[in-house]
Design brief:
Blueprint (H helix, E strand, L loop, with lengths): L2 H13 L12 E7 L4 E9 L5 E9 L2 H13 L5 H5 L3 H7 L7 H21 L4
Antiparallel strand pairs: 1-2, 2-3
Amino acid sequence: MSSDLYREQLLDHYHNPENFGVLDNADVDIEMDNPTCGDMIHLTARLDSAGRVAEVMFEGQGCVISMASASMFTEHVKGKTVQEIAAMSLTEIEQMMGGVKLSMGRVKCALLPLNAMKQGLKESGGAR
């Protein structure tokens, strides 16, 4: 993906995020921040009876990378199992974001939604 197209895609997700809001009665409900740059995310998710992500929403504030990553992530993880999410890494996040290689300063921004989801699943006990 060209860098201009990549930039447009990120800006579109930043200005028009997917799944923005909070789910009531969520199985996962976690807030996480990145103290390095001040990014903050509140992630809520509901699992189905098979332990797959049925619904996921987020709200927060932060840089274009963290908010665009959260928007893309909420679309990307629908239907995934707790185990599939636990196995996700930076490589998958970079691919999800158009194959970009992030600078060290931006890695924590892009990983914020994944880290929040992993921690939230751990705290909730994962699948029911």
